[in-house]
Amino acid sequence: MLETRLFLVLQALTENRIQRIDFVLSAQEQKDSIHLKLWQYFKDILLQRSKRTSKQQSFQFVFGNEAYNDQKLRLLVSQLFKKVENIIASQEIEKSTHEKNRVLLKFYQDLGLQKHYATQAKKTELFFQSDKIKDNAQLDAQIEYESLKFDYLLEQKRNQDLNLQKILDLTDLAYFAKKLKYICNALAHQSVYEISYDLGIMAQIELYLTPEIVESHPAIALYYSCYKMLQNPDDKSKFEKYISDIKKYQGYFRNEEMRNIYLLGINMCIKHLNKGNKAYAKIGLGLYEEGLNKKYLLVNNKITRYTYRNIAMMAIRVDDFEWAENFTENYRDFLRAKDKKSAYHFNKALINYNRKQLDAALDNIIEADFNDHLINLAAKTLQAKIYFELEQMDLLDSHLDSMEMYIIRKKVLGYYKENYRNIISYIRKMIRLNPYEQKRKDILSEKVSSEKVLTERSWFLKQLA
Length: 465
Fold this sequence. Notes:
By secondary structure, this protein is mainly α. It is built from 24 helices and no strands.
């Protein structure tokens, strides 16, 4: 397989996107162009989903019986990559009304075509008035338009009314919206990881944010609600206000941003669930369901293996195995092809394990093999727990050796390395325990309870009870 930047980009594209690039490139290039010839070779491989190609085969297709020259091929691939990037960039601009308007306004302004500029400016203003999206990107686009307009007005006549007040008002709104958005992400991140963020002048901004200003723009209103929730995680009313505001304002944001907005609410549900408040699981599953139905939680109409596992886990933790089972089956085909088998069997293993169907869970977990080190270690940990509960100690001992070598070989670092080493160590200590020596079991339980890094603490305590 060719591991060039070009080929890796093309592999990530849909068939429709490849055909659109093909149409443009074919129109741009001469029929005997070596760039077009190499492109057609790559295109045929991609559309046939074939992996059987190499640098030598690519060179031979383009240059026939000429002796292979690696530098010549690399130069050709680089040139083709630039052409494809230009086409992709043009197509992305074509998809964005904001970008098209900006490019045309600047173009007419630079050429001094005042009538064309005026017509385009009117179209742009009408677009902003009718556009339902009211997010940070839209605020940025409005500021850019007003900045272009300011430059244009200044060129025409310096003593006329300018649009400076509108630019000042918009920049205030954009600053508040951006600051709140990234503070929300910072607070959410530091609540999970051992990191602390300096929130800057947020305390002073809060004094300025009157109810009228907060309600003046959806991006400010929703992220301010989120900020208050994250600042007061134990205040149920703040959580309920954020969930209510998600429903109120979701039509104003693009799907990509709604994904993060939903996840901020879901993560708060997980935090409360971790504290034992199972009522939040129902709310979290509701947010997951809404996010999936509205495609907010899908990326290119696909679900990530992490989201796929996390959704099932939330249902499992409140013993709603039917919900977890239905979700796992219904969204299997939304996984990327390379993740489908492993992610599906991992979910099935989790469901069967928690249903105490250990043999079925073991059959599933053996089918799960991930490239992601951390998910793979989570799967291996589950397999170790199953071996222990089935009392298959010989298999367990060998499996723990394998896990330990995996940690060393894959260079798992920091918190994760310590966690999985602790899991291996404590399982080995439990294997050596005499089940009738309660005193030694109690001593080990105390050590487990006081261990700083141990994600499977509750499982160990249950086995030692």
